[in-house]
Amino acid sequence: DVLAVIHAKLHERITHADWAVLSKKEEVGVAKAYTRRCKNAGGARETVERASGVRRVDYLMGRVRFMGLEWVGDGGVRLITA
After folding, report:
1. pLDDT tens, residue by residue, 27-74
2. What is the spatial distance between Cα 70 and Cα 34, in angstroms, rounded to a whole number?
3. Residue 48: which domain range?
4. How many domains does the structure of the chain reveal?
5. Quick check: 37 and 57 in contact, CB under 8 A?
6. Where does the record place the DUF6699 domain (predicted)?
């Protein structure tokens, strides 16, 4: 199921290489999204989320409404969010 794969991928932890390619502006946006996600978890879950680090979902920087998928390039797919 496509949606299950998207969900699983968005909850993967990022790598140091992923972080290294971000601009300073993107780093700030992702860090804010990470902090917001952790705080929204609340209670003991907040501690668990903070310990697990930045996840791919944080790259969406709050744009978490699924709008569709778009074919790009040679078989690539782009996630469209709002």
Report:
1. 999 999 999 999 999 999 999 999 999 999 999 999 999 999 999 988
2. 26
3. 2-81
4. 1
5. yes
6. 1-72
